[in-house]
Design goal:
The complex is a heterodimer of chains A (667) and B (524). By secondary structure, chain A is mostly helical. Chain A has helices at 5-21, 30-53, 85-108, 115-134, 138-156, 163-194, 199-204, 211-228, 237-240, 246-255, 260-267, 269-273, 276-299, 303-323, 329-356, 374-388, 394-408, 411-440, 498-519, 523-532, 543-566, 579-585, 590-639, 642-666; strands at residues 62-72, 75-83. Chain A is built from 24 helices and 2 strands. Chain A is globular and about 105 Å long. Chain B has one domain. In chain B, strands 1-2 form a two-stranded antiparallel ribbon. Chain A: It is found in: Endomembrane system; Membrane.
Chain lengths: 667, 524
């Protein structure tokens, strides 16, 4: 059975290699090959899953060692896999949602002449992501970690003729690399502390190390998680990453890759449990990002960027839960899975809307689409109900548990965290209701297609005010998609083809039922318990009170959105808005800060260094050289030519050497 | 007496150089093929050396020893350890690609060709001559022999830089010639001064030890037969180290490299940074640490700081460059900082990593620089700003350039990651603060490579770029094997580490250093 694990990674890896090296001959069949191999990986995962269910709870982990990757003295990294319940959960999510999104992309990317390459990159992503969750040591995890970063870079920048896409891709990679510093240092600390960085020995002996060391490791792991999972302060890349094709946003930037940080923290639970300071940092990051993402999500008019803000916020919930320790790990992962369903579904729905609306992404130019795209409307609507935590749907079960666990943290901290998660639930209801109303309800506000000949980086007049000042790639919200549309024509919204709607329907089922199924007899918690351990949290107020409070803030948020967007017409041009709205549109000024401090500052630094290198360093060294070289200057007059003068110096030098040795012998 | 294999690996390219130079003026294609065949033959010999070398065997293998200048104790002594084998393999591997990549670089336009002037023959003869000297310098275990080679290889390099410049030049022909000549002279003067200082140290070493044999001196020092005053050892160490730090090059002695790599043709730039400069870092490991272990430990703090400055400074300057080739040169300065850091961290991970780094950096820089050279020869400009959207018109060229860039930023899965991480972890184990500073280099490397890729390859296609053709079969044949090797050594570096590790163990015991112990002994 364990020999199958490598197949999980090998199938999509083979697909990536064949599709990327295969050349144009594969253009006709490439997308089928890519989808088939993704599905093959899912089938293997299912086989392994049922095999795992057949064994006792403590006996489910499988190991497969291929060979020693880096063998240098005591430094030893194996290419080895570990498949336990936590990895299995991720493997099913990655291959399952991954296969659905491959299917969706067949239709979505139909008109793209580089579709084969797109599927090659998607396969590459699957292989890297599976490596990340299957690795049995931190260095191999790092391999997968950077691999998904590469796939994300390639896919965000897939339409790299657009400068905004190329810039967004680079930004995502760079910000992630800042996080990677954390992962690198954490691995080095593990090596110097434990002499190894394999999960087994490190996590088993974590409590023997000093708390200071563990805190340092924990904080470094948190830095890594912040980069990959777009948590404050490394969140700035996720909004720009929406430049990528929408299936990519659904798979990588919503359902799977961005949750890798939560995996990392949960996997390293034994380290965090023994380092309370690091845990406090984790819950703080989670709580701040939860609110940050939600506020940004409220202000965006670009449907994908609103959803991106929401993703940040939901991952904030997961990170917060993971920071709570054994009372939260299982719920963090449960929310991760349900979020994988409903957020992937929401993104695919957004892609379907854009597909029917000339690739328009500005929700102010949508409106009244429910009649034109019924399947999209219903599946998106179910995802919407799931994410806001409507009773009985998936998000209700998973989010409610996190709110309870936050209160159960105890003390003032518990009250603060509980309040934040409650507030977040209210804001979630607000921005998602806003998205729902602006897109599917109200009057039609459709606009003619943008001029395809317009330079892609020029902002349309109707774009958010002030965005042209924002740093980094802001991109044009109106130019997604490779296919140009005739300028000046009103969009003709239509339902998307079957290959796109079927994955949306499947994900909608998950959005509705997954949470409920997981909660029957706490099945999900018991499934993960052998890996993540589980303790019952005891909130200071009863669970019923918390659930009621959650429902109240939910209704308040949704009601406010209805009052603002449902009962009044939505202006096609965004109003100026309050100071907070304007700041939120610009990602709460994070990009402006980065631009002024890092980009501008960095440019000044490098420019002055280039000057210093050219004049000072070169000058001083040359000056020294010139004074020494005066000798050869005189020789040059005799010999004419540097090479000859050099030869003379060398022979002269040799003569000196011989003379010196002779002298030495004489003495 | 057995077949002198090591001598043969150097004699073959040297003889090939002479033959190539002798090819008549009208037959330059023959000269090219001759050079390629000779370099491939050398590669076969290097492969034999690699196979014959036993990792678990004696420290120096395949040894040869002959009296040479008996009066001064100079012997013709050769021998290889694992580090030498790895670098001989690298050199012999890269030269055929350098020859193939530079196939047409030295062809004069028909109008200026004369019967007597044979630039093509000269170009390839010089490359082979450099190969012979570099390989022999990796084999020499006699300090004097090494010194002679270390210096002599400057002469063919000087002519390669000064005589065969990059045709893509912004200024007039006279301006280009002046720039080229400046770069060549600067290269020569820097290395000459380093060499002269080393010469003084070589003389001094002889005065103390009475012979030039590296194994002999090391053994005598270890057994206590030969003692050195602390100040003497330190002075001699500095003399050697200075020459190697110029060649490597280490900040602040680096400024000759961007000039030389910028003005030389791309294959010659690869020859400089991927092959010739490795003699500097190799010699630090072989001569500085072995001959002067105490002084090496004494100088370590300063050298570690200089290496860190090189890493960060080289990377920041790479970010600020407007010329593609100068950018790669500054990136190399940053990478040489990593190599020196690994050597002087004095841990087995650091030194194994540094040796792997020398090999991997050679391959990755070759890919990046050669593809850059192909691109530059198409458009006729080295300026980054003159490019844009190349991936649209030449996707294969852009793809190989991206892989070269990703190797340069040490992406896991490609060979440089393994070596860079080993250097970092080896440094961190000894000097945590230095390890953390060096780790920031991974962000800067991503910055300068991806910015370069973005500006040249992505975005709308620039008018002058429209005519850029994709890679020709000859060019693809040059980069594809190197890329395959980057992948192979990235996921399976064991063949290399197996050869290198025993040599590192010897060096570690020479400098009397042991790896730091872990804080907690984890359950295995």
């Amino acid at each position: 059975m364990e020999n199958l694990i490598a197949l999980l990674v090998a199938a999509p890896l083979l697909g990536a290699a064949v599709l990327l090296c295969g050349g144009r001959r594969l253009d006709a069949a490439g997308h089928w090959l890519g989808t088939l191999l993704a599905a093959a990986s899912f089938v293997v995962a299912a086989v392994l899953f049922f095999g795992m269910l057949g064994r006792g709870a403590e006996d489910r982990a499988l190991h497969q060692t291929l060979y020693t990757w880096v063998p240098v003295e005591s430094f030893r990294a194996d290419l080895a896999f570990q498949l336990d319940q936590l990895s299995m959960t991720f493997v099913l999510l990655i291959t399952g949602v991954g296969t659905l999104i491959h299917v969706y992309s067949i239709g979505y990317m139909e008109h793209d002449e580089r579709r084969r390459r797109f599927f090659g990159y998607l396969n590459l992503f699957l292989a890297a992501m599976l490596l990340l969750v299957l690795a049995d040591n931190y260095l191999l995890l790092y391999f997968g970690w950077e691999g998904v970063g590469l796939a994300s870079y390639l896919l965000i920048g897939f339409w790299q003729h657009k400068p905004s896409a190329a810039t967004a891709a680079k930004k995502a990679f760079l910000v992630n690399r800042v996080g990677d510093i954390g992962l690198s240092i954490a691995i080095m600390l593990m090596f110097t502390t434990f002499g190894t960085f394999a999960f087994g020995p490190v996590l088993a002996t974590a409590d023997k190390a000093s708390e200071g060391t563990l805190t340092a490791i924990g904080l470094m792991l948190l830095l890594a998680a912040c980069g990959k999972s777009a948590q404050v302060p490394l969140q700035s890349w996720l909004g720009d990453a929406m430049e990528g094709p929408t299936p990519v946003s659904a798979l990588i930037h919503a359902a799977t890759m961005v949750t890798a940080g939560v995996y990392l923290i949960t996997r390293s639970g034994a380290i965090f449990d023994a380092a309370p300071t690091a845990q406090t940092a984790v819950v703080t990051v989670g709580a701040v990002t939860l609110l940050f993402g939600a506020i940004v999500g409220c202000a965006k008019d670009d449907i994908k960027k609103a959803l991106a803000g929401s993703t940040m916020s939901q991952i904030g919930y997961m990170v917060l839960a993971a920071g709570l320790g054994p009372i939260g790990y299982a719920f963090a992962i449960m929310h991760l899975v349900t979020h994988g369903f409903f957020k992937a579904g929401l993104f695919l729905g957004a892609g379907s809307v854009m597909h029917g609306m000339n690739d328009e992404v500005d929700m102010r130019k949508y409106g009244g689409l429910r009649a034109y795209m019924p399947v999209t409307f219903v599946t998106f609507g179910l995802g919407y109900l799931a994410i806001i935590g409507f009773p009985g749907l998936s998000g209700f079960w998973s989010k409610d548990k996190i709110i309870e666990a936050a209160f159960a943290k105890g003390g003032t901290e518990g009250w603060i965290l509980g309040a934040v998660t409650l507030l977040g639930a209210g804001i979630t209801a607000y921005y998602m209701t806003r998205v729902m109303i602006m897109t599917f309800f109200g009057e039609k506000r459709w606009q003619p297609a943008p001029d395809p000949h317009r330079a892609p980086d020029v902002e349309p007049a109707a774009a958010d005010d002030g965005r042209h000042l924002a740093a980094g790639p802001v991109g044009s919200p109106a130019a997604e998609g490779p296919a140009g549309h005739p300028a000046g024509e009103l969009p003709d919204p239509h339902e998307s083809p079957r290959s796109m709607t079927v994955p949306m329907i499947v994900l909608a089922f998950g959005s509705v039922f997954a949470g409920g199924l997981f909660s029957i007899n706490s099945a999900f918690v018991h499934w993960l318990e052998p890996v993540t351990r589980f303790e019952h949290g005891h909130p200071p107020v009863s669970a019923a009170v918390i659930t009621t409070a959650t429902l109240v803030v939910l209704l308040a948020g949704a009601g406010l959105a209805y009052a603002q967007y449902g009962r009044r017409p939505v202006p096609v041009t965004a109003p100026r808005g309050s100071l907070l709205t304007r700041a939120a549109r610009r990602d709460l000024l994070q990009d402006d800060f980065n631009h002024v401090v890092l980009v501008r500052g960095g440019e000044h630094l490098t420019r002055s260094l280039v000057y210093v290198d050219h004049t000072l360093v070169d000058g001083v060294v040359n000056g020294t050289a010139a004074s020494v070289g005066g000798l050869s200057g005189r020789l040059r007059k005799l010999q004419n030519g540097y090479a000859r003068s050099y030869a003379v110096s060398m022979f002269g030098g040799t003569a000196v050497l011989i003379a010196a040795t002779l002298l030495m012998r004489a003495v | 007496m057995s077949f002198p294999l090591l001598t043969a690996t150097a004699v073959l390219p040297a003889a090939g150089a002479v033959l190539t130079a002798a090819v008549p003026a009208g037959r330059r294609t023959a000269a090219k093929w001759l050079a390629l065949l000779v370099s491939l033959g050398t590669l076969v010999l290097a492969a034999v050396v690699t196979v014959r070398f036993e990792p678990g065997g004696a420290r120096y293998q395949l040894t040869e020893s002959h009296a040479w200048i008996a009066d001064f104790g100079v012997r013709y002594e050769l021998g290889v350890d694992g580090i030498g084998v790895a670098l001989i393999a690298l050199t012999a591997l890269l030269i055929p690609f350098i020859v193939a990549a530079g196939w047409n670089d030295a062809d004069e336009p028909a109008a200026t060709a004369t019967r007597r002037w044979r630039p093509t023959q000269g170009f390839f003869a010089l490359i082979l001559m450099v190969e012979a000297m570099v390989i022999l310098s990796f084999e020499a275990t006699d300090v004097f022999l090494f010194y002679l080679l270390f210096e002599a290889m400057l002469i063919p390099m000087y002519f390669l830089i000064g005589g065969f410049g990059d045709r893509a030049h912004a200024g007039s022909d006279e301006h280009a010639a002046a720039q080229r000549s400046y770069a060549a002279v600067k290269f020569l003067l820097y290395n000459l001064i380093g060499g002269l200082i080393m010469l003084a140290a070589v003389v001094g070493l002889y005065a103390v030890a009475g012979n030039f044999s590296l194994p002999g001196i090391v053994e005598a020092r270890a057994s206590g037969d030969l003692t050195m005053a602390t100040s003497t050892e330190r002075l001699l160490f500095l003399g050697f180290f200075f020459a190697f730090a110029v060649k490597a090059p280490l900040w602040p002695l680096h400024t000759w490299l961007p000039n030389a790599m910028g003005e030389a043709t791309a294959p010659v730039a690869v020859l400089i940074t991927a092959v010739v400069d490795k003699v500097g870092t190799f010699a630090m490991l072989r001569f500085c640490l072995q001959l002067f272990p105490e002084a090496s430990r004494w100088a370590t703090p300063v050298i570690v700081v200089l290496a860190l400055v090189s890493i960060v400074y080289g990377a920041l300057l790479a970010v600020g460059q407007r010329d593609i080739k100068r950018l790669v040169a500054y990136a190399s300065i940053s990478h040489f900082g990593f190599i020196v850091l690994g050597i002087f961290a004095m841990t087995s991970q650091g030194q194994s990593g540094a040796t792997l780094y020398m090999v991997n950096h050679g391959i990755s820089t070759a890919v990046l620089m050669l593809v850059a050279g192909f691109l530059i020869s198409r458009r006729g400009s080295r300026l980054i700003a003159d490019y844009g959207g190349v991936q649209k018109v030449a996707p294969v060229l852009a793809g190989t350039f991206l892989i070269g860039s990703l190797a340069t930023l040490s992406l896991p899965g490609l060979a440089p990651f393994v070596s860079e991480f080993l250097v970092l972890v080896g440094t961190f184990a000894r000097y945590p603060a230095a390890g953390i500073v060096a780790t920031t280099g991974i962000v800067l490397a991503a910055l300068y490579t991806l910015v370069l890729y973005q500006r040249t390859m992505t975005g709308p296609v620039k008018e002058d770029v429209r005519a850029v053709k994709d890679l020709r079969p000859r060019e693809l044949l040059v980069v594809a094997p190197l890329i395959a090797l980057l992948f192979f050594l990235g996921v399976f570096p064991k063949p290399l580490t197996e050869i290198v590790d025993p040599a590192v163990r010897h060096t570690m015991s020479d400098v009397k250093q042991q790896d730091p112990r872990p804080e907690v002994e984890a359950a295995k």
